[in-house]
Each structure stands twice: as C-alpha cells, then as structure tokens.
C-alpha cells in the first residue's frame, strides 16, 4: 500500500522555525482556512506516521494561532465595553449630581 505525502500547502515542510514564523504572520482567516485543510488531509488518511505527526503538529500550531487572534478580539471587545460602561457611569453620576441641586 502506497502512502501519500502531504502537499507543501499543508505539511509545513518549509523548516521548523520557518514554519513557526510563517504561522505567526498569519491572520485569523488564513490560519483557520489552513487548519481546515490540515484536518481534512488527516481525516482522509493514507499518510505515513511521520507525515501525519508533522501535519498534526502544524495543525496544533495553527489552532494556537487562531486562539491568539480570538483572545485578542475578546480583549478588544471587553475594553470597548468597559469604555462604554465607564462613559455611562460618568453620565449617570452627572445626572445624579443634577438631582441634588
């Protein structure tokens, strides 16, 4: 039985640290789309053990990159909501001061 080798687009074979650097430069959508491709390739099977492990490791790195983007988005939303809440609180205090006069 012949084993398939992963293609260059999904195997991360450009080198260990180069592959990590390339993942670090990916935007969320790019990392997500590549991760989907990695999962599909692994689900199809037919890869030898080493190729499967290499591809799985790249998938893990891509998933971490997606999480980093999502965490950054969460923080931005929380900051924006905090700013809105602070503005509302400042506005409420000003309104309360007007009631005392």
From TrEMBL:
Catalytic activity: Exonucleolytic cleavage in either 5'- to 3'- or 3'- to 5'-direction to yield nucleoside 5'-phosphates
Region (Disordered), start-end ranges: 1-27, 81-101
InterPro entries to which the protein is assigned, alphabetical: Exonuc_VII_S (IPR003761), Exonuc_VII_ssu_sf (IPR037004)
GO molecular function: exodeoxyribonuclease VII activity
Alphabetical UniProt keywords: Cytoplasm, Exonuclease, Hydrolase, Nuclease
The enzyme's E.C. designation: 3.1.11.6
Biological process per Gene Ontology, one example term: DNA catabolic process
Key word Ribosomal protein present: no
Biased composition regions of type Acidic residues, renumbered to the chain: 84-101
Pfam family, one: Exonuc_VII_S
SUPFAM superfamilies per UniProt: XseB-like
Gene3D superfamilies per record: Exonuclease VII, small subunit (1.10.287.1040)
Subcellular location: Cytoplasm
Top-level taxonomic group: Bacteria
GO cellular component labels: cytosol; exodeoxyribonuclease VII complex
Enzyme class, spelled out: hydrolase
Complex formation: Heterooligomer composed of large and small subunits.
Family: Belongs to the XseB family.
Protein role: Bidirectionally degrades single-stranded DNA into large acid-insoluble oligonucleotides, which are then degraded further into small acid-soluble oligonucleotides.
Protein's recorded name: Exodeoxyribonuclease 7 small subunit
Organism encoding this protein: Williamsia herbipolensis
